[in-house]
Known about the structure:
The chain is built from 13 helices and 17 strands.
Amino acid sequence: xxxxxxxxxxxxxxxxxxxxxTGLAQDDVEAIxxxxxxxxxxxxxxxxxxxxxxxxxxxxxxxVGHSHGPATATDTAERVATPDTQFCVFSAxxxxxxxIMHELDARNLLRxxxxxxxxxxxxxxxxxxxxxxxxVLTHRAGIxxxxxxxxxxxxxxxxxxxxxxxxxxxxxxxAGRQLxxxxxxxxxxxxxxxHRATGKPITEWLRELIAEPLGIPMSYxxxxxxxxxxxxxxxxxxxxxxxxxxxxxxxxxxxMTRAVAASNDPRFLTGVIPSGNIVTTADGLSSFFQLLLDxxxxxEDGLLDRRAVRRARVESAYFKLDLTLGIPVRYxxxxxxxxxxxxxxxxxxxxAFGHYGFVVIIGWADPERDIAGAILTSGKxxxxxxxxxxxxLLSTVSQRVPKR
Length: 404
């Protein structure tokens, strides 16, 4: 991907508070922004949108690059990304779906300790009757992969079909015995259980609990007339090498290039995939994590039960080997957790929590720094030259935003 010679020409800014009001200097803000531009200049990201909050105030709200064309397709009109551009956040959706489940538990509408069969009796086939909703939430249900004979795009609009296939799936391990990232499967089970327990689909719970109270655009997929409003994803870099290619195929049921193409398909963008197709802005995702940082409150209003937020952050795995990802991961109950050294959210972020999405989508909060943020990107690549800029960016945030 070619980099425009004038980055200001492809940069758009949204409303930002005076950094001094949050205890930061303008130099701190610009240092972080230079980190964003450093990631853009790798040529792996056609568009990047960033929104960072400190002490509840937005201090960085900018986008750089093109959300549509010229990199996405020859027949796509060029469009510069703005802070209002919506992105699919992929697996960062899991954090939002998880919080909905915790909130329903706090309201006594379901119980995460219950076996799934309490809500989906047919799920008990093939020795799955002891799998609980909590097992699903923490990637221990034993059904991490989509059946290989299924077309994920066709399933996006066949809810009953995917539920039936997951109920009939044979587990790869007994409930709770192993840790294996459930990239797509778990969200369907959680959402179906929520629907049967409450009579209300998870799309309505997202709207009622989060999107409308926060006043943000956030939904599972979009209406057909808004498909073209979503930033187009692009496969960048070189072919994905083995064994990373196998990890991706095992997780998504598609290879990297097909997965990226599918992410731009209207069938994907108009379906409901609870683990992977929430569409929102950087401000929207940052607002969500600010809500969690504030214990479920917005100002004086309690939007979520504080117990729901606290329980999502309780550690469920301490750098245990994830059999899907092939790396040790620290998980909460639906969230990824930070660490002092080897953290997904930058150095010295042991209390941070959030979630990543395919590939460089990051939503997180760090209570020690009183920060909530989102980094949304449209480039899909596993090339090494973007890893250091990502780490530098997260490190700059950690260094420039002081602990309380």
